[in-house]
Amino acid sequence: MSSNLPPDSVNPLNLPPLVSSARLRLRLIGQMEAWSLNSESVLPTGRKTRALLGAVALSGSRPALRGRLAELLWSRSPEEQARASLRQEIHRLLDILSPAGDDLIVVTRDHLTLRPGAVWVDVEEVMRASLTEPASLALLDGELMEDLDGIDPSFDSWLTAERERVRDHGRNLAEALLREHDDPEKAIPAAQRLLAIDRAHEGAWRTLMRVHAARGERGLAIQAYDRCRAVLADLLDTTPSTETQDLLAEIRGAGGDPLRRPRPRNAAPAAGITLPDDAEPISRPLFPSGQSETRGLRGGSRVGVLPFQMVGTEEEDAHLAPGLASELTTALSRFRWMMVVLLGARAVPAGPGEDTAFLRNMGLDYVLDGAVQRAGNMLRVTVRLLDVGDGNQVAWARRFDRPASDLLSLQDEIAAEVVAQVDPEILLIESKRVAAKPLQDATAYDLVLRAMPLIWRMEREPFMQAGAYLAKAIGMEPDFATAQAWYAFWFNFYVGQGWADYPSDAMAQAQVHAERAVALDPQDARGLTIAGHIRAFLHRRPRDGLVLHERALKLNPNLPMAWALSAVAHSYLGEVDAAGAQMDRYKSLSPLDPHAFFYDTCFITTALQKREYEAAVIAGRAVSGMNASFSAALKPYLAALGYLNFSEEAGVVCRQLLALEPTYSPSQFLKTTPIAREEDRLHYADGLRRAGLRDHPEEDEG
Asked: CA quadruple 150, 151, 155, 160: dihedral positive or negative?
């Protein structure tokens, strides 16, 4: 809302404007936020109070009738009772907003309205966006008041209409902007802006496909199609239109989808491959060979998913085989660095060591397959990941035994756990392969793969080499979002491990690369959650970090990193129950995560906050046993030891910590910790002192 006085025609109460600029920033898109000028959150905790604030704000400069507000929020109550409830909520709202000003909301006998110029509202900025000034469309990055469904049937209907109004305005403007841009450099961000508003907009997906194809980036064009297909299946339970499929066929240059090509009459299966009677051999690659056409400079693994085999199952279970494969394909497609295809022709590898030329000719790096077997009321599902490049060796396998009572939930659960665990396995394999190649031949993607395992080792010399690889990758491709995200993550550890000579500069660099990653690819869940952790940990803004974590989880609910880092942000805020729930989900998805030493540190912190010192020590021992070089895990572990008076063990851990960070002290902790509540900060610092960690005399002067 502008600070200028609106014309009388839109200010029917003729309220005088405030001389100063807006004193409250109100965000209604996504999860509601309300901030005063001194960055104090004044968001009401009650859902009805937030709903009242949102309804008044969306009325803009038009007064909101009290009777209408009572009907919206208490439609099932008698009129007098509804009006009495409204009066209570108004008093509560005014009291909560008082730190930002006593006159933000003007209340009369019949109306409520925001005082002109007093409140900045994100929805008003979006509605003011135009062809000449479209920048505020970027604010439309979530659902309007997304956490306020279910308050009242009348409010739900009103909120649905308001969401459609705001979304339609944003979509129509973004479509007009896309039509204006013929320049490929502008068409891609215009299409991405439209997809941020409407992920299922096929026209925007087709624009991305055409532009990438015109630039010679056929692999990226095909990847855009795969993402479009996954989104349509996920959101609308449908497939791409004929127009989109025809465009894919044109890009592939063969006049049709290879998965639908008729089977040659006398075609024989390749050696080592078992084809069912109705299978259709694929005569050309799903992913064309050659770096320039598939992986390009950016890279990515090519994964095929086969329908599962049914072993002695009942007829009513027959739909499980294609259903599981479809769920896995959709779930895998959420990982941006994978190119995934559902293999309609069931080319089933016979096993490790068999000839894999057929699969290699299809352009595949990995294949997921499995089997389903029923035993009474239980179903056993086995899944395996085959490494085509290593002679079809089984790279990963898991068995799931589940009740057969809810088959749809079973498919969802198994697909979620499989993709969460397969993702790091493939990255590990790819990193090892890239490390064996000559460095002078490395692409930007190769350099990122080389850096990843060096970061996780938490040893200074390899870690610094990882930073050099990432800097070089960004130098080669400045608009490579994945490299930008991992470089931001590298700076996170650079500061966190105490290795940065100039921490404030390193923190600034982390934020620059994190924001660049999100701007380049706002649909990448991993980049978003890394950016969220940078905000929460380095810049001590955990509430802001949670906004990005939540968006990441909407984009990819099967990303363990996002669940764990969301838990960390909750723990910084003292919300230990929410942190525990997020950590439970992370663990259920990836019980043996290869980077558990980093994520599981949250178990130590939350146990310390809950004053459960024995649990904190048990978790600390487990985490330090996985990686004793990770200093962040030693700190809460040491504080818990201090409270238990385990002096001998505390001495060992204290020496480990000081070997990694020689100048670390309780005072330094208090200056740098993102933990929000003072009682938690002081409690943590006192534990460190009890464990023998001392402040330095010169710190008092600093």
From this structure: negative
Among the candidates 377, 410, 432, a domain finishes at 432
Q: 115-148, pLDDT tens digit by residue?
A: 888 898 999 989 988 888 888 888 887 889 988 9
Contact 521/336 with Cβ under 8 angstroms? Answer: yes
- Closest by CA to 322, choosing from 283, 364, 370, 258, is 370
Domains contained in the chain, number = 4
> Is the CB of residue 345 less than 8 Å from the CB of residue 259?
yes
What CA–CA distance (Å, rounded) separates 408 from 392?
30
- Within a domain: residue 235? yes
Q: Give the other-Cβ count within 10 Å of 527's Cβ.
A: 29
Q: Which of 170, 205, 227 is at the close of a domain?
A: 170
Token pair belonging to 99: 């730190």
End-to-end CA distance of the chain: 43
257 Cβ contact list (under 8 Å, min separation 6): 245, 248, 249
Residue 289, domain CATH: 3.40.50.10070
Burial class (CB in 10 A: 0-12, 13-18, 19+), 11: middle
321 neighbors 361 (Cβ within 8 angstroms): no
Judgement on whether residues 287 and 160 belong to the same structural domain of the protein: no
For the cut 80, the answer to whether the pLDDT of residue 219 exceeds it is: no
One-letter identity of residue 147: D
Angstrom CA distances, 142 to 33, 94, 178, 394, 495, stand at 13, 27, 20, 40, 31
Q: Which residue has the tokens 């930008």?
A: 484
DSSP-derived letter for residue 46 is S
In this predicted model, what pLDDT tens digit does every residue of 292-346 receive, in sequence order? 333 333 567 888 888 888 776 555 566 677 778 888 888 888 887 888 877 754 4
Residue 488 predicted with pLDDT over 90: yes
DSSP string covering 166-221: HHHHHHHHHHHHHHH--SHHHHHHHHHHHHHH-TT-HHHHHHHHHHHHHTT-HHHH
Q: What HEC string does 320-384 produce?
A: HHHHHHHHHHHHHHCCCCEEEEECCCCCEECCCCCCCHHHHHCCCCEEEEEEEEEECCEEEEEEE
For residue 162, the 8-state DSSP code is H
* Residue 89 shares a structural domain with residue 224: no
Q: What are phi and psi of 119, to 5 degrees?
A: -130, 130
Asked whether residue 613 is domain-assigned, the answer is: yes
User: What is the full DSSP assignment across 437-460?
Assistant: S-GGG--HHHHHHHHHHHHHHT-H
How much is the average pLDDT of 471-483? 91
Q: How many Cβ atoms sit within 10 Å of the Cβ of residue 256?
A: 14
User: Mean pLDDT over all residues of the chain?
Assistant: 83
Identity of the amino acid at 153: P
How do 301-305 and 366-375 pair as beta strands? parallel
**Same domain? 601 vs 657:** yes
Flag whether 666 is in a domain: yes
CA of residue 35 relative to chain centroid, distance:
24
**Which structural domain range is residue 632 located in?**
594-702
**CA 306 to each of CA 6, 22, 317, 397: distance values in angstroms, whole numbers, following the listed order:** 62, 57, 17, 15
139 Ramachandran zone, left/alpha/beta (phi>0; psi -120 to 50):
alpha
Quick one: 631 and 700 in the same domain? yes
Check whether residue 52 and residue 192 sit in a common domain. Answer: no
CA–CA gap between residue 301 and residue 364 (Å, rounded): 8
513: in domain: no
Per-residue tokens: 232: 């349509």
Residue matched to tokens 């030493």: 597
Q: Do 663 and 615 share a structural domain?
A: yes
